[in-house]
């Protein structure tokens, strides 16, 4: 490794996340191509510059043979990534099952799966076993690459059992754990059958981080109410050992977006889009096709707007980019059909022979096309039902330097706490309110747009992914040093 230069520290960092920043596609027996993975965690961590960390994670693909594993390990090493190989069965039980069908909906206040409740209950134990086994497999890879003094930064709900595995192996490991989703109210969390084991494991970390103060508060309440431990302003205390708990709001690398806007390829996209939608206002949605993103609710609110404002028909278009995700999980398959059905109905109702009000794409866009879209659109609609932070809202603001477009933002996204003064905040469940906000955004006077944008732009460009990572690692070192001092006193 090269050495880390975080605030003068000389130290190595092992970042452990379920998903590596690149996903692998097999092109031949020993040939792999790599492409950037989707999601907030990856886009934030890609924005961390000058950090010579190594990444440990799953490449998103099943590689049963040794030739393939060796070739992929080599290809990933060039990106400073180390793969954890998970077989199909474990992916099914741990990733599709426990992570995405149980923890994900629960942490976003959608509760334990509604349909097929009995089947879920029956499968629960085997899925939780697979979850623990998978976490142990990540831990095994960490042990292989760990050297004394390394900082180990575990990420997200997939790896809540990892801090315990690591500390059981070596109590002196410096372990941080960061959650990229909301941590729900303890009243929701306590319905989880494995609530005790997961909390106890997370508390093995030295530092536990969340995007917002509210999530940190919910976590501390869960520990006090469910485990009967003591919550202090610093964190959670158990028999004299303190686990520090704090909020570290994430950001993006805003310079990367600003630089992209100067590229000829992006400028070309910008002029094509401007020409294509001339004479119409353009609203943008960019989401993974996930139930937490509130895509059906957003589209229904747009329908209500069209219904109530016939003078806007044919003068406004909604571009919805819905990036397919977790396609093996039945809930996600149902969502895809539901969204298609609603879009088809609304386009049939309000479209003409030459134009439709909604352009819906079920795919990801390359970075340049995405930056161009962010730059040319008049309004961005981020209507998550719950969202840890939501970095699409940050990316939109970063690209709106000249246009000063309006951000409509769900009050249930973590980003509402940082961009709330500049955005129009909405309750995404209230489609009348969202429809009214669409009208407000489309007709907003330029001085108000300018003022709101200035506020958000200042935030996005000064609270970067780099600051987030530096602050977390700095705090982790500090916490461990203080704990050491305390034990020596
Ligand atoms: C969210 C999660 C990430 C996850 C991403 C994409 O942002 O917090 O941990 O990587 O979604 O989801 P996926 O299941 O494709 O990794």
Automatic annotation (TrEMBL):
Q: What is its EC number?
A: 2.4.1.15
Top EC class of this enzyme: transferase
- Residues crossing the lipid bilayer are none
Q: Among the record's GO biological process terms, what is one?
A: trehalose biosynthetic process
The UniProt catalytic activity note for this protein reads: D-glucose 6-phosphate + UDP-alpha-D-glucose = alpha,alpha-trehalose 6-phosphate + UDP + H(+)
What is an example of a GO molecular function annotated in this UniProt entry? alpha,alpha-trehalose-phosphate synthase (UDP-forming) activity
Q: Which UniProt keywords apply?
A: Glycosyltransferase, Transferase
Instruction: Give the protein family.
Output: In the N-terminal section; belongs to the glycosyltransferase 20 family. In the C-terminal section; belongs to the trehalose phosphatase family.
What is the recorded name of this protein? Answer: alpha,alpha-trehalose-phosphate synthase (UDP-forming)
The species this protein was found in: Zea mays
Q: Which residues of the full protein are shown?
A: 104 to 592 of 960
């Amino acid at each position: 490794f090269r050495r880390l230069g975080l605030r003068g520290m000389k130290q190595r960092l092992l970042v452990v996340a379920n998903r590596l920043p690149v996903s692998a596609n097999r092109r031949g027996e020993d040939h792999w191509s790599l492409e950037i993975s989707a999601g907030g965690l990856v886009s934030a961590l890609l924005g961390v510059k000058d950090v010579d960390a190594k990444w440990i994670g799953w490449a998103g693909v099943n590689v049963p043979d040794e030739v393939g594993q060796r070739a992929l390990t080599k290809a990933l090493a060039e990106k400073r990534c180390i793969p954890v190989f998970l077989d199909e069965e474990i992916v099914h039980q741990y990733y599709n099952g426990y992570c995405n069908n149980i923890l994900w909906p629960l942490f976003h206040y959608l509760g334990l799966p509604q349909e097929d409740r009995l089947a879920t209950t029956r499968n629960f134990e085997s899925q939780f076993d697979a979850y623990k086994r998978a976490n142990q497999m990540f831990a095994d890879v960490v042990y292989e690459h760990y050297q004394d003094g390394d900082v180990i930064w575990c990420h997200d709900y997939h790896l809540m059992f990892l801090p315990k595995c690591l500390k059981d192996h070596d109590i002196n490991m410096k372990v941080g754990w960061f959650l990229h989703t909301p941590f729900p109210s303890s009243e929701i969390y306590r319905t989880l059958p494995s609530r005790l084991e997961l909390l106890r494991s997370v508390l093995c970390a030295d530092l536990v981080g969340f995007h917002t103060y509210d999530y940190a508060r919910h976590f501390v309440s869960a520990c006090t109410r469910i485990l009967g431990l003591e919550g202090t302003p610093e964190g959670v205390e158990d028999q004299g050992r303190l686990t520090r708990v704090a909020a570290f709001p994430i950001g993006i690398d805003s310079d990367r977006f600003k630089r992209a806007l100067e590229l000829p390829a992006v400028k070309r996209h910008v002029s094509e889009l401007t020409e294509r939608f001339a004479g119409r206002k353009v609203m943008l949605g960019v989401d993974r096709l996930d139930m937490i993103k509130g895509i059906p609710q957003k589209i229904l609110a747009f329908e209500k707007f069209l219904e109530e404002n016939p003078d806007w028909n044919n003068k406004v278009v909604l571009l919805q980019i819905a990036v397919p995700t977790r396609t093996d999980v039945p809930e996600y398959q149902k969502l895809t059909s539901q969204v298609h059905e609603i879009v088809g109905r609304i386009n049939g109702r309000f479209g003409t022979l030459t134009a439709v009000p909604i352009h819906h794409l079920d795919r990801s866009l390359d970075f340049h096309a995405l930056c161009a879209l962010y730059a040319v659109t008049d309004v961005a609609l981020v209507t998550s039902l719950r969202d840890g932070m939501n970095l699409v809202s940050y990316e939109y603001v970063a690209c709106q330097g000249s246009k000063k477009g309006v951000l409509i933002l769900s009050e249930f996204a973590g980003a509402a706490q940082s961009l709330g003064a500049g955005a129009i905040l909405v309750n995404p469940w209230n489609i009348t309110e969202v429809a009214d906000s669409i009208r407000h955004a489309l007709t907003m006077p330029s001085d108000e747009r300018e003022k709101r944008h200035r506020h958000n732009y200042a935030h996005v460009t000064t609270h970067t992914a780099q600051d987030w990572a530096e602050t977390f690692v700095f705090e982790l070192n500090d916490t461990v040093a203080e704990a050491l001092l305390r034990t020596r006193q």
